Every structure is written in structure tokens, then in C-alpha cells.
Amino acid sequence: EPDICPDSGVKRSSAKFVSSGLRKIKKAAPIETKSKCNLNVCVRPWIRINGTLNRRVLDKFLSSVLGHIMVVPLGSLKMVQDRFTPAFQPHHTRELVEILAEINCIKMMAVSNSHKSTLFSKPTQVSLVPATGLESEEAILLEPDSMAVSRLACFIGDTAYRKDIYSTDSDKS
After folding, report:
1. Biological process (GO) annotations (predicted)?
2. Rounded to whole angstroms, what are the CA distances from 20 to 4, 23, 117?
3. Which of these, 104, 97, 98, lies nearest to 148 by C-alpha position?
4. What is the mean pLDDT of residues 86-113?
5. 0.85 exceeded by pTM
6. SS3 breakdown of the chain: % helix, strand, coil, rounded to 5?
7. From CA 126, how far away is CA 141, in angstroms rounded?
8. Which runs of E-coded beta strand occur in 26-104?
């Protein structure tokens, strides 16, 4: 027969765990409304809750996205976003692609037509122009640079990570 608490109907070992948690909550200090402040949280997988950059995670994500872009050159941004969904939200993937473009690992190109084509018009001249960022995801093509891996390696550097990926700031390592 399990030892059951008559009040809650829960096993005693579980009831002790729950009641110890309640004691901790009761001992917590009351919240002063004068000293509280609003906190803006930037939710990205490579940003910790306290707002610091988790550089190891950022480096891994950048190398993953760059690896996929190098496997499928001149693929659209939409295709890269679809590849990394549901691991990343599409706007997170776009931000990683923009970081790669900022460090000159890739070029963001847009497809430009000389004029709108119709059934009776002359063929349009299609050209690639630098993307402004305002185009749709399907129209932005990602072209890897020949020195992309070297540039990403220079960006990452020879950083010796002091913390594990999943460590918190309270962990001493």
C-alpha cells in the first residue's frame, strides 16, 4: 500500500516535494512596485535570457546555414528558410543569412527583369542585382563566396569556449 496523503490524495513523497516548494514560495520576498522595471527580451536562439550572446550557438548556426548555402548555390532565401524550419523561425534564418552577408561570406542577389513580359512582347532580359532586402524571399538568391569558409573561420576565430552550450551563468566552470 502506498503512503497517501489524506488531504491531497498524493503519495507522501510527492506531497513532501510539493509542500517544500510551497514553503520556498512563501519565504520569497514581496515584490515592491517602486523598484520593478520592464524588461525587453530579444528572443533568439543564440541570445541567452539575460541578454548575453551565446557565441558557441551563433557560430554553430552560422556554419550550418553557410554549409547549406554552399551545397545549394543560388538557392532562394525561401528555400533556406524552409530547410531550417522548424528548428529556426524564418526570421531567425533570415537574420543569420544577413549576418553571413555582412561578413562577406555570401552575396544576396535579386532577380531583375528588364520589363514585364507578355505573350506578344520581346523576351525579357533577366539579370542579377544586389538585393536591397525589401524583395520577397523567393526573389532573393544566395550566392556563396569562394572564400566563404575562410571568412567564417576568421569571424569565429580561435575562440576557446569556456562554457558548455547548455550552461547557465550560475554554473561555475
Report:
1. 5S class rRNA transcription by RNA polymerase III; transcription initiation at RNA polymerase III promoter
2. 17, 5, 73
3. 104
4. 92
5. no
6. 35, 15, 50
7. 13
8. 75-76
